[in-house]
Give the backbone structure.
Amino acid sequence: MTRAGIGYDCHRLADGRRLVIGGVEIPHERGLDGHSDSDVLAHAVIDALLGAAGLGDIGEHFPDTDERWRDADSIVLLEAVVGMVGATGLEVENVDCTVMIEAPKIAPHRQAIRASLARALGLEAASVNVKATTGERIGFVGRGEGVAALAVASLTAAG
Ligand code: MG
C-alpha cells in the first residue's frame, strides 16, 4: 500500500531576511519572512509527509505562536516529522516538489537542495526531485512579493 500526501506553503519576501530553500541558504538581497527560518520548501515537504501519514499539518505540530520555533531551522523540523512518520510504521518512498520563485534562479542550487532534503528524509537523492518555475511576472510570485512551494510525498509500510 502506498499513501500520498500534498503540501503547499508560501512566504513573503522581505529585506533583512535570509533566503533558505530546502535547507540551502541562497545569496539574495531579500529573504523569506516568518516565524521560523521560513524555509518555504521544507514546510511544503513537511505538510506532504504529514498529509500522507494522516498526521495533520505543520501548524498543529509547530505553531507559530510558540517561541520554541522562532527562527527554527526547518530542516530540524523536517527531521522530526520523518521521525513521527516512522513511528506510525510508515517510511518515505519518494518526494517531488516545485519551488515557485521569480528570482533568483534555483537551477544553480538544485542539486544542493536535493541533497539537503534527501539527507533529512533519509533517502537517496534519486528519490527526491526538485523543480522550479517562475510566476511569469504575474501574481505574488511573478511580482517578487513572495515565494511558494508545492510538494508531494509517498509513504509505504516500513519493512
Ligand atoms: Mg511556512
In short: The longest helix spans residues 40-53. The helical segments are 40-53, 58-61, 74-87, 110-121, 139-142.
